[in-house]
Specification:
The complex is a heterodimer.
Chain A (H helix, E strand, L loop, with lengths): L2 H20 L3 E4 L4 H13 L9 E4 L6 H14 L3 E4 L2 H5 L9 H20 L3 E3 L16 E4 L27 E4 L7 H11 L10 E8 L2 E4 L14 E6 L10 E4 L5 H9 L19 H7 L3
Parallel strand pairs in A: 1-2, 1-4, 2-3, 4-6
Antiparallel strand pairs in A: 5-6, 7-8, 7-9, 8-10, 9-10
Helix pairs in contact in A: 1-2, 6-7
Chain B lengths: L4 E7 L5 H11 L5 H10 L20 H6 L6 E6 L4 E6 L7 H8 L4 E7 L6 H12 L4 E7 L8 H18 L3 E6 L23 H7 L12 E3 L2 E6 L2 E7 L4 E3 L3 E5 L4 E8 L7 E3 L3 E6 L10 E4 L5 E12 L5 E2 L3 E6 L2 E14 L6 E2 L3 E2 L4 E14 L6 H4 E5 L6 E10 L2 H4 L9 H8 L4 E6 L6 H14 L4 E5 H6 L9 H20 L3 E5 L5 H9 L6 E7 L2 H7 L4 H6 L21 E4 L5 H22 L1
Parallel strand pairs in B: 1-3, 1-4, 4-5, 5-6, 25-27, 25-28, 26-27, 28-29
Antiparallel strand pairs in B: 2-3, 7-15, 8-9, 9-14, 10-13, 11-12, 11-15, 12-14, 16-22, 16-24, 17-21, 18-19, 18-23, 19-20, 19-22, 23-24
The chains are: A alpha/beta, B alpha/beta.
């Protein structure tokens, strides 16, 4: 392993230990994606020979790729870590889906609201997430320990200065801390590390022939028969893969022939667009992330 | 490939820092197309460059900042060339955000100080150079930007460099490289520009690719602060942490600081299973041969050269808060993985960041850097910051708001505590109390001026005296005529005022007396400090509660009227704050209760305690 990766690995594990030592009720967000896979791998390494002393939490919108859910259940069973799955049942019953609402409102209801509900019900006060600073412009300014006021709101003005590796996790009742152990990793680091450590990831990251249709100039995979096809439309089989994973109607695939980690690394090194390009939510609002984070989104 | 370089860009507002970073990302092909497209829309805002693509925009993150065209928070950007990876902390230039710049500097190995060629050296240039030096950055690059605006005049460049040279020598940087550039046009960024034929040095990017910032490791043996004790079952007990210095392997003899207990390393769990030796920077889990008590905050160190523990330090402190740091006030103190309560016992001086001179100060305001003495409630393992960053850097946290209000670096330990041992007396507090047949206690009355404190204190003492108790009243006004006549009403003086009264009342309680303190004592922090100086049950906080309007109506000394006329500054309730107790031991609403009734309540609260005490005796 290069010194750079070894340093990132040690830094992240130091952050995880610190978060757990300072927490009352810690939980690790598990989104099933590549970053979550790396974060979980680091946590398992950190607490060897024991299992990590916290549960995993997945916010299930019910619109994830089927392969993601199968992968999630397999990893949870293998790791022996408790997996909590939460869905916003009220909105689900109301019929909220990516096809009935625009992606912004859909995300607010099925992800942000659901997340807050899950955290409040169980009283989690230290929430580890896999966000990276290189993902998006407003992420670049996020603290590693990000303070949330009561109601999970993020106020940029209340963020605490973060010097050296000294993290202030002191909170009053109702307040919480989100912790981002992968803050200083880049997309390329993630893939190099996955390759070196043989970390399992959802097969959707690798190119394969998949049934897709075009929406707004992007390839969307038809993962099940809930997808409303246009009259006379039939999905086309294309060699594609995903750079990021989320709800399948909102995750765009890219044309690719990369079937191995080494090929993905090569592709990432030469990428001229950011990985978030594949998330349709991005385009609904300029600087979409900041208002979302203020509401309590990850 | 060299190891990742973490650097900070700093300098005054409008020197073009964000454009410089945008240019570096652009030159290393790290600006993604989809991150540029929203910028095309943004670029129509007034005040941005129209003709050239605005390179600063991909860097500036937060909505509020983009609207005001200023950067208030540190942004971390990542880019790479075939030769090296870079993490750049983009720090705000505006003076009021200097503390954010210090945040970025604390994790950087090199600083790129940007100077506007058309404006020359600014106060912020000096300030930022001093701050990065204080935080231990040893390598400085001075980018003289906007050279195109001065027609690439070589003398402009050399004059700026020459004027800055004395500061470079004074601050003792290991390396210093001035480079003339135009970030907007790209001259001397990735490649040497033909515009500056007189300049013979490297381009910025090639200099950053090549520079060696490896620190010569201080001559320190193994030290690891314990972050987490991993104890899943009876069979395994491991101590997790990241090594601060030295190396460790199975069989090594180690000492736990501060307990001083020694043991031998039985095994280490590293991140790579094949690795059996671990060194500085590695995250490991250590198992020891003996079952000894080790907790988070301890340092496991080489037994042949262990770290020391101490409870008094001289340190440099940077104030990070609108709330000033005041001598006499105490804060939560986080050093590596341990936590203590630290009082600032003295502010020795403030550093003038422009000139480097020392200024006498009683408090440190936002962005001030000062040298202070700290006194902790317990001994903590440490190293001086210049020997070990990890074991010598700390933050100060407000005990009530939980905000990080200061950051500091340890200069050295003060040995005072070790040299002045307590004079042990044969006649102690218990003996004196027993002689007086009473339990000594401090009854602390706090409240606004004219809330009724003195009236209650007076009546209370009479009643106690009548029942045969030995009492003494410390009254705010009276003490200010004597012991505290050198103090005014600024926040710093008020803190000192309360500190002295706390100490006096502690001596009187030690003498076996029932002490009644009647002081406005407006700040929660000082009342908490006062409480912490007494044993449990020896201190009762009594909130004499009357609304401001009522106090102002009573105004027996005419002070409110004076303050309202502006003839009396820093008057509590008018232009100086009163922080009401959140959970006082006794609360007396003097609008509802008579003075007699108030005293009854205090005596009622005292009586069960004293009768309980009598039974114990």
């Amino acid at each position: 392993m290069s010194n750079d990766l070894a340093n990132l690995e040690a830094e992240s594990i130091e952050i995880i230990w610190e978060a757990i030592a300072l927490a009352n009720q810690p939980v690790m967000m598990y989104s099933i994606g590549k970053d979550s896979s790396v974060m979980l791998h680091l946590a398992r390494k950190a607490f060897r020979p024991a299992a990590p002393p916290f549960p995993l939490l997945h916010i299930d919108t019910t619109w994830k790729f089927r392969e993601m859910i199968a992968f999630r259940d397999r990893i949870a069973a293998e790791s022996g870590i408790q997996l909590l799955v939460h869905t916003n049942q009220k909105r689900l019953a109301e019929g909220v889906s990516p096809f009935t609402y625009d992606s912004e409102r859909y995300t607010t209801m099925m992800k942000t609201e659901a997340l807050k509900e899950a955290l409040d019900t169980r009283g989690f006060d230290m929430i580890l997430g896999g966000a990276r600073r290189d993902e998006e412009k407003s992420r670049a300014k996020d603290r590693i320990f990000s303070f949330r006021s009561a109601g999970h709101r993020q106020d940029p003005k209340l963020q605490r200065p973060e010097l050296w590796n000294l993290y202030n996790a002191r909170i009053h009742p109702g307040e919480t801390i989100r912790v981002f152990p992968l803050s200083n990793w880049t997309e390329l680091d993630i893939w190099q590390y996955i390759g070196l450590e043989n970390i399992p990831v959802v097969p959707l990251y690798f190119a394969a022939p998949r049934p897709v249709v075009t929406r707004s100039g992007q390839w969307i995979m038809v993962d099940d028969d809930r997808f409303p096809l246009n009259p006379g439309e039939t999905p086309e089989m294309r060699m594609v893969r995903f750079r990021t994973l989320g709800c399948y109607p909102l995750s765009a695939a890219i044309d690719s022939t990369a079937t191995k980690v080494s090929e993905i690394i090569h592709e990432t090194q030469n990428a001229r667009t950011s990985e978030r390009e594949g998330r349709l939510i991005h385009f609904d609002q300029t600087a979409f992330m900041e208002p979302k984070k203020k509401e309590g989104y990850f | 490939m060299r190891e990742t370089l973490r650097f900070i860009t700093c300098g005054s507002l409008d020197d073009g820092k964000s454009t410089l970073i945008g240019r570096l990302l652009w030159e290393s092909k790290q600006v993604f197309q989809d991150q540029l497209s929203p910028l095309a829309q943004d670029s129509t805002h007034p005040g941005t460059q129209h003709e050239t693509m605005d390179l600063a925009l991909p860097v500036d993150g937060r909505q509020a900042e983009r609207e005001q065209s200023i950067a208030i928070d540190v942004a971390y950007r990542f880019f790479a060339t075939p030769k090296r990876r870079f993490v750049v902390a983009d720090a705000p230039g505006h003076e009021q955000y200097t503390h954010n710049m210090a945040t970025g500097a604390s994790t950087s190995q090199l600083a790129v100080l940007v100077v506007n060629a058309s404006k020359g050296l600014q106060t912020q240039t000096h300030r930022h150079a001093r701050i990065v030096a204080l935080l231990g950055i040893r390598h400085l690059v001075m980018v003289v930007n906007k050279m195109d605006l001065v027609g690439w005049e070589g003398t402009v460049f050399s004059q700026i460099v020459e004027a800055f040279q004395p500061l470079v020598s004074a601050l003792g940087f290991e390396s210093f490289q001035p480079i003339p550039v135009s970030a907007l046009k790209g001259d001397n960024i990735a490649e040497r520009s033909s515009a500056s034929s007189w300049y013979t040095g490297p381009s910025l990017l090639s200099y950053l690719e090549e520079i060696d910032v490896t620190r010569v490791a201080a001559d320190l043996k193994f030290r690891m602060p314990v972050q987490w004790v991993n104890r899943p079952d009876q069979d395994f007990r491991g101590y997790c942490g990241r090594i601060a210095s030295g190396t460790v392997r199975a069989g090594d003899r180690v000492r736990v600081v501060p307990s001083g207990v020694e043991s031998t390393v039985r095994s280490i769990v590293t991140l790579q299973e094949t690795k059996h030796t671990a060194s500085a920077g590695d995250a490991i889990t250590i198992c020891l041969e003996d079952e000894i008590d080790v907790t988070r905050g301890d340092v496991i160190a080489s037994a042949s050269d262990p770290a020391e523990a101490c409870d008094q330090f001289e340190a440099r402190v940077l104030c990070l808060s609108q709330q000033e740091l005041v001598a006499g006030r105490s804060y939560l103190f986080h050093l590596h993985t341990c936590q203590a309560v630290a009082a600032i016992t003295a502010i020795k001086f403030q550093v003038d960041v422009r000139l480097g001179t020392h200024l006498a100060k009683r408090s440190l305001e936002l962005n001030d850097i000062g040298v202070v003495n700290l006194s902790l409630d317990r001994a903590v393992p440490f190293e001086a910051y210049d020997r070990c960053r990890r074991l010598g850097s700390f933050i100060l946290v407000d005990r009530f708001t939980n905000q990080t209000v200061g950051a500091g670096t340890i200069n050295f330990a003060l040995r005072r505590a070790a040299n002045i041992s307590w004079q042990t007396m044969d006649i102690d507090k218990q003996a004196r109390a027993w002689q007086k047949l009473q339990k000594p206690v401090c009854l602390w009355l706090t409240g606004l001026s004219a809330s009724g404190k003195s009236t209650i204190a007076n009546l209370l003492e009479k009643r106690l005296f009548a029942s045969g108790r030995h009492t003494y009243v410390l009254d705010g006004d009276n003490i200010r005529h004597g012991l505290n006549r050198d103090l005014g009403f600024s926040e710093a003086d008020r803190v000192e005022n309360i500190r002295r009264v706390t100490e006096v009342s502690k001596l009187l309680v030690d003498a076996g007396l029932v002490v009644i303190v009647s002081f406005i004592s407006p700040y929660r922090a000082e009342r908490e400090v006062a409480r912490s100086r007494f044993d449990a049950g020896e201190f009762l906080e009594i909130f004499v509660d009357a609304p401001l309007e009522e106090c102002e109506r009573r105004d027996p000394k005419g002070l409110y009227a004076k303050a309202r006329r502006g003839e009396l500054a820093n008057f509590t309730g008018i232009d100086s704050k009163y922080e009401a107790p959140e959970a006082p031991d006794i609360r007396l609403e003097t609008v509802v209760l008579s003075a007699e009734e108030c005293v009854d309540r205090i005596l009622l609260a005292l009586d069960p305690r004293s009768s309980h005490h009598a039974k114990m005796d």
